[in-house]
Amino acid sequence: MRLFIDSSNVSQIKSLNEYFPIDGVTTNPSIIVKEQKPFLPLLKEIRNVIGEDKLLFVQTLSTRAEDIIEEARYIHDTLRGNLVVKIPVTKEGIKAIKTLSQENIHTLATTVYTPMNAYVAAKAGANYVAPYVNRIDNLTGDGIRVVYEIMAIFQKFNFSCEVLAASFKNVQQIKEVSLTGAHGVTVSPDLIEAFLSNPPIKENVEQFRNEWIQLYGEENATLLEGKRKDD
Ligand code: G3P
Question: Could you give the CA distance from residue 108 to residue 201 in angstroms, rounded to a whole number?
Fold first, then answer.
């Protein structure tokens, strides 16, 4: 399951990309405006941080298919590297996805709430769909079940479209999504950090070090002590 950072904060992206096995960055208009910066230089900065191979997702704003297509072509030509254009699954959005798939511009159908939203998008040629797990739960739906059903439909009909689940409030939802076999998840920086924030890990590491130090001493709390002796 691929892991994407759902953020446009450059310093958080830099740090997470250094420490975690990250496959790219997803953004949307709300995420971009949080940074209070001109959007194009910001996206170029993110591209510089993650490099050209990792995926960068940028969402269109227009509501008419012709305008969505124009925005998609522009952002595709302007930003280097592996770029995916996010398009909401409105009727106009689906029309735009159909045209863009003919032009080999990769798209992700976003704001997906039902399996049929995803089916239409995949059939129109979207490369990815993004079901909004937590927002579905907030509507008293079952976000995880929606992901399961999308996966089942795509597998039954051999759609090559990938499921990139989005909108998470906790790590449990992400674990549940991983059990569906979803191709990827896009996760906020704080939740990615929370993957490793279990208190016992730190305690265990301290205990290992303390036991070692009691026998070998603080200055020798390293396996390199053996190397020093060999030299
Ligand atoms: O990428 C879509 C995602 O950011 C939506 O998440 O947390 O705003 O529901 P959220």
Answer: 37
